[in-house]
Structures are given as C-alpha cells and as structure tokens.
Write a structure and sequence with these properties.
The chain is of the alpha/beta class. The protein is built from eleven helices and 14 strands. Strand 4, helix 5 and strand 5 form a beta-alpha-beta unit. Helix 4 packs parallel to helix 5 and helix 5 crosses helix 6.
Length: 367
C-alpha cells in the first residue's frame, strides 16, 4: 500500500461524512490510469469503461479526462443507468445486458432519437423482436435505427466441462452466423458491434494465496482458454470481413484479461472497470500492474466486549462464489480481524481488534 494511507488523517477526513463511505486515492488512481493506458495504446486499442465497477460519475469523468484519446465510451449495466449518464453528458453507451422491458426499450428509443449513441446487447432473435416491435410503431415518423451488439459466448468447454459464465447461447460460429444473418435482414435494426467476454480468464487469479495448490491448474486453464477464445473471435472476424461488413467496435476483455485480449488484431476495444480502483481480487493476477486505489469505511457503533468492535453495515463483494479472495479485507488501523462466523454482514460487521490505536464509538474502520 502507498505510504500516504494514514489512519488518523483518514479519520479526520470523514468526521462529517455519512457511512459507509468510499475513499479514493487520486495519486494511485492516476498511476492505474497511466499503466492501463500504456498497455492498451501500444496495442492500438481503445478502452471502454465498465461503469458497474466504479458507479461514481465524477470518477468516471476523471478517468476519461486523464485517459484522453485512449478512452472511448462506457459499458453500462442498464438503460436506466444509460439515461442517467446521458443526462450528465456521457455518450457512446453500450448496455451490457439484454432487456425485454417496455420501459427500457422506450428509453432506448428516446435516447437514440435525441442523438445519443446507445447500443443494446442481444444474443437471440427474441431480443431483437422486442426492440423491433417498439421501433415499428414509429417507423413512419423517423429513420432512427436501433443499434445492437451481438454477445458471443466465450466460455471454455473442454471434455464437457463448463468454465466461464452462463450468458449468451451463441457458443459456436454457426450459431453466430445464423443470428447475424437474421438480424441483418431486419429493417430498423443496425448491428453496431460484437462482444465476447472471456470471464474464465478475466475473473480468475492464478496467484491466489488462499488456494495455492490450484494455481498451476488455473494457469493451465487460462492458457488453453485464451487459445480457444482467440480462435472463436477470429472466426467471427473472418466471416464479417468476407461479407464486407464493418463494425463500429469489436469488444472483449476485462480488467483481468487485458493483455491477452489486446493481442488479438481484430479486437478494437477492451473493457476496464475494476482495474482502475484495484479491488484486492486483482492483486492475485500474474499480469496485474495496478495498485490499490480505494478503501471503504464502516462506523463503529457498538463495543460488545473488550477487544471487539461492531460496525454498522458491511462490505460489497464481487460476483461469483463468496471466497477469501473476494471478501473485503481489514486495512486500517492495523490489528483488525474479521469474526469468522459473521463476516461482513448486510447490517453489521463485528471486528476483533488487537492493535495499538485507541478506538472509540463513532470512529471509522477501513477495509
């Protein structure tokens, strides 16, 4: 950790703040932005910021400003979020998850009509038909096309196993070709991009201190999976090239797979979110170059017995199975340990404390 994380200074900083609070060290954030930008610019790729991993508009703007021309667009979780971010001046918004909501599609149309570039994720004809049904109601009044991105599954399936996430049903090239050809024939729909997210690479650290015996197997899986992903995305690219079809973007990657993804010549942009702030999960990646840039604070509200302090509220945990590499870890002051039979709770988090700092009710503890 950088030397300027100081418990007493942070405690003073939060004297009048509400809890839970998140604290971001801008020097560390700057270092991460610079490192990520250098890694990606040498590969001639753009960076799309994953807003779900940041969630603070001012920090998103800060990253975009610092990153400059290397940064292009945002990956959002929902249409409602895209609407909110658009109202703040953000543009080029890729919605990472499909929707059937009438309200979402209405927002999609209104943002498109207003000139905001919004792209909705699809992975089947039904997704497209839901959008088309709404668009057709206004087809006589406008020439706006609904921009969509086809989500191609990048999970790794050796010998019948499934390694990755359950997202898109488009698992083989023939399925992609069939869907692409069908969407291409729909009048009010425009295929703007392709996304292939390799979660089994981006979401698995191969230097995990909590399961060291599994690390060699993880390295092997990531190596084999990267070769498999390369072939899948290459096949899609070659087909589009043969058809003379030009995409606005070809998206791949995550904070945990930037280097391998950026080596693929057909990829035009990579997605980065957690890598800017560096939650401790990413400390356990071989190719990690980021430093921890944030922590969060909970307030001590109870002292149930000597040496134990209970904080109101709890931590936030990454997607997937809860494990030590994803659960928050005590940071400041030194000498904190989480009570194992409670952990980080939804309403309270007890801590066993053996450090030298005097803790009072109302004080913050940092994680």
């Amino acid at each position: 950790m950088p030397c300027h994380w100081d418990y007493r200074k942070l405690k003073i900083l939060l004297e009048r703040e509400s809890f839970p609070s998140m604290i971001v060290d801008l020097d560390c954030l700057d270092e991460n932005i610079s490192n990520i930008s250098k890694n990606i610019s040498t590969a001639d790729k753009k960076i799309r910021i994953a807003t779900k991993s940041i969630r603070v508009p001012d920090i998103i703007k800060y990253i975009q400003k610092k990153g400059g021309s290397n940064f292009q667009g945002l990956m959002c979780y929902s249409m409602e979020e895209a609407k909110f971010l658009s109202s703040l001046g953000f543009d080029d918004l890729l919605i990472a998850y499909p929707t059937f909501s009438f309200n979402d599609i209405e927002i999609f149309f209104s943002l498109t009509q207003a000139g905001t570039k919004v792209v909705s994720m699809v992975d089947c004809v039904d997704h497209v038909k839901a959008i088309e049904k709404f668009w057709n109601r206004f087809s006589s009044e406008n020439n706006y096309k609904a921009r969509v991105c086809i989500d191609v599954d990048m999970s790794y399936r050796p010998a019948g196993l499934h390694l990755g996430v359950y997202r898109s049903p488009i698992r083989i090239f023939e399925q992609f070709k069939e869907l692409f050809d069908k969407i291409s024939q729909i009048e009010n729909i425009e295929i703007s991009g392709i996304m292939g997210y390799e979660a089994q690479i981006a979401g698995m650290g191969e230097r995990n201190p909590f399961s060291p015996l599994l690390n060699p197997a993880k390295r092997f899986i990531k190596y084999r999976s990267a070769k498999d992903v390369y072939k899948k995305r290459q096949a899609v690219h070659q087909y589009l090239e043969e058809e003379g079809f030009n995409l606005d973007f070809y998206n791949g990657g995550g904070s945990g797979s930037l280097l391998s993804t950026s080596k693929e010549p057909w990829i035009t942009e990579v997605t980065v979110g957690s890598g800017f702030l560096q939650s401790h999960l990413f400390d356990y990646y071989k190719d990690n170059t980021s430093v921890p840039a944030f922590c969060f604070a909970l307030q001590v509200t109870r002292n149930p017995e000597p040496g134990y302090y209970t904080c109101k509220s709890g931590g936030f945990i990454a997607s997937g199975e809860t494990s030590p590499d994803k659960s928050p870890i005590p940071f400041l002051p030194d000498g904190m340990n989480i009570v194992s039979n409670e952990g980080f709770g939804e309403v309270q988090t007890p801590v066993k404390y053996t450090g030298s700092e005097e803790i009072q009710l109302g004080d913050p503890l940092f994680f």
